[in-house]
UniProtKB/TrEMBL annotation:
One of its GO terms (molecular function) is steroid dehydrogenase activity, acting on the CH-CH group of donors. This is FAD-binding dehydrogenase. Residues 4-538 form the FAD-dependent oxidoreductase 2 FAD-binding domain. InterPro entries: FAD-dep_OxRdtase_2_FAD-bd, FAD/NAD-bd_sf, KsdD_DH, Succ_DH/fumarate_Rdtase_cat_sf. It comes from Streptomyces rochei. Signal peptide: none annotated. Keywords: Flavoprotein, Oxidoreductase.
Length: 557
């Protein structure tokens, strides 16, 4: 035996599982295809937003949340409709997860030194139906340190366990096969990859320099999703989302390749809900890319006007920050759009300064460095857009600015092969919207939404610009942003029970095999159902990784 338990994938889920094991005295082999620099996987790059329910941060801001409200929101978003089959464990995971988010989660995180910004973000405001998709209240709690800070304690524990002789790192070891004998997982086999000194996140070589095999009493698969491979994303693209885009930007490093899903299936694990994914419609090309096709997701406030590739304003609920997949469905299925992979924001300088946030730890250096004074200076007291947003405005290939609408549309047309936008038509739509601003009872759903958002102090102070006319020169210059579909999360995967045991085709566990994090659809093979409430992915890794580690520790006692 090389270890008690082998963990495949040194991202957040794998590190949490490893910690649960080593803190119970189990010996762990932690195997990852990337080098030591990449410890922590995607979580290192993440924004560090976490879904919490009825937290002290919410209460201080006057937000009234409850387990009942959160569970109602979760069910409305998930739309579980395969409860006898592919969703049978996902529903149980969902309930357990929401209870955790409303209960122990915050204190458990505090026990690992993870604390939160005083403001709470309002992600996925929803599809405007009480029983439909979306967060009724703000629940997106951003960790001091962003995702880098969330994964840091678990990286530290792993390194300490290695020094204590309980954990062995196997970097540049790519698992190609799970060894299952007599129905029981007994180890892994794979390829040793050539040394690679690339910095974190940069695609590394796949040159084989040898083979390896490791034996243990249990194997935990924590290998992440499929977002780095557009062909796989297209292969599983569901019909309900129309045709997959020919061109997308990539929101995850290249190692998020999804290979372990099929490898796990070959070993007897059941894959479910593969047609469920979570890709964003507000991606922009990174002017300073780290991984291939690197895109950054804009987390927009509610005020930018959103137009399709042909210059038609999107209908509600396709409003910025409301309904990610509803908007994706619209953009992929509306008349005349199938051949166009982009859409547009039109906004003002005043809006970008207050409303644009960029997802990713490196795009939020003040929060990542836990620099509270810098945060206050830049985001609350400061004038102008935060530095990283300003850099995109200046350097980003998808950003254009102009003093008037006609010039702006001309520049926007310069970013596509053919000029698809008509300035007069766009002017009519913006003027109609602007006309509603003077009306306190505005019939425009977006303006109603902006006013509603500003009733929440967190939005009014830090996230939603004071309502103004888009064509007001005092709010300018005008800004156009070309938006791409950005691949990110995989919502389906290996079906697991509440102990993160991988289930086989007959619904019984494959002995000794566990799965957690994104490869397990963040628990049960699809805890989110069809739609996520955001901030639920890191938490899903923590929750399912913890369950896997604890169960595997019991099994190997
Ligand atoms: C920019 C960005 C922002 C995000 N923001 C948020 C946020 O604010 N809130 C939130 O909840 N979520 C967020 N997420 C999502 C979240 O970070 C990820 O879903 C989560 O970290 C996935 O963790 P994981 O452990 O399941 O997998 P990963 O982090 O992908 O780790 C998997 C590891 O397995 C390794 N591996 C894969 N296959 C093999 C193999 N065959 N052999 C050996 N090793 C293998 C990979 O190299 C990798 O190191 C964000 C993600 C990104 C990229």
């Amino acid at each position: 035996m090389d270890a008690d338990v082998i963990v495949v994938g040194a991202g957040l889920a794998g590190l949490v599982a490893a910690h649960e094991l080593t803190s119970r005295g189990r010996r762990v082999a932690l195997v990852d295809q990337e080098n030591a620099t990449n410890l922590g996987g995607q979580a290192f790059w993440s924004f560090g937003g976490l879904f919490l329910v009825d937290s002290p941060e919410q209460r201080r801001l006057g937000v009234k949340d409850s387990l009942d409200l959160a569970w109602s929101d979760w069910q409305g978003s998930a739309g579980f409709d395969r409860t006898e089959d592919e969703d049978s464990w996902a529903v149980r995971w969902a309930r357990a997860y929401v209870e955790w988010a409303a209960g122990e989660k915050r204190s458990w995180l505090a026990g690992h030194g993870i604390t939160f910004l005083p403001t709470v973000g309002w992600a996925e405001r929803g599809d405007l139906r009480a029983g439909g998709h979306g967060n009724s209240v703000p629940r997106f709690h951003i960790a001091w340190g962003t995702g880098t800070g969330v994964v840091e304690p678990f990286v530290r524990y792993a390194k300490q366990a290695a020094r204590d002789g309980l954990l062995t790192f196997h970097h540049r070891h790519r698992v190609d096969h799970l060894i299952v004998e007599d129905g029981t997982a007994r180890g892994v086999r794979g390829t040793v990859l050539a040394e690679d000194r690339s910095p974190r996140g940069v695609a590394s070589n796949r040159d084989a320099v040898g083979e390896f095999a490791l034996a243990a009493r249990a194997v935990i698969v924590t290998s992440g999703g499929i977002g780095g491979d557009h062909d796989v994303v297209r292969r599983h693209w569901p019909e309900r989302l129309g045709t997959p885009p020919a061109e997308m930007v990539t929101g995850v490093p290249a190692y998020v390749d999804g290979r372990m899903l099929d490898i796990s299936a070959e070993a007897g694990a059941r894959l479910v809900n593969r047609d469920r994914m979570w890709h964003y419609t507000e991606g922009v090309r990174n002017w300073d890319p780290i991984w291939p096709g690197h895109g950054i997701r804009i987390l927009p406030g509610p005020s930018s006007m959103w137009f399709d590739a042909l210059g038609r304003r999107l209908p509600e609920p396709c409003l910025p920050g409301y309904d990610t997949l509803g908007t994706l469905r619209h953009l992929r299925t509306a008349d005349g759009l199938a051949d166009h992979d982009h859409s547009w924001f039109i906004l003002t300088q005043k809006i970008i300064e207050k409303e644009f946030a960029l997802s990713g730890s490196e795009q939020n250096p003040d929060i990542t460095a836990k620099d509270r004074a810098g945060f206050l200076r830049e985001r609350v007291l400061g004038r102008g857009a935060p530095g990283p947003v300003d850099a995109f405005l200046r350097e980003g290939a998808d950003f254009v600015t102009a003093p008037n609408l006609e010039q702006l549309v001309d520049r926007m047309n310069g970013l596509t092969d053919k000029p698809l936008l008509d300035a007069a038509s766009i002017r009519r739509q913006i003027e109609a919207r602007d006309l509603q601003l003077a009306n306190p009872y505005a019939k425009d759903a977006q303006i109603q939404g902006i006013r509603n958002a500003r009733r929440y102090i967190g939005d009014r102070l830090g996230r939603v610009a004071a309502p103004h006319r888009i064509l007001d020169p005092a709010a300018g210059p005008l800004i156009g942003v070309k938006l791409h579909v950005l691949t990110r999360k995989t919502l389906g995967g290996i079906q697991t029970d509440l102990d993160s045991r991988a289930l086989g085709a007959d619904g019984t566990p494959v002995e000794g095999l566990y799965a957690a994090g994104e490869v397990a659809g963040f628990g049960g093979g699809g805890v989110h159902g069809y739609n996520a409430l955001e901030g639920t992915f890191l938490g899903g890794c923590l929750f399912s990784g913890r369950a896997a580690g604890r169960a595997a520790a019991r099994q190997t006692a």
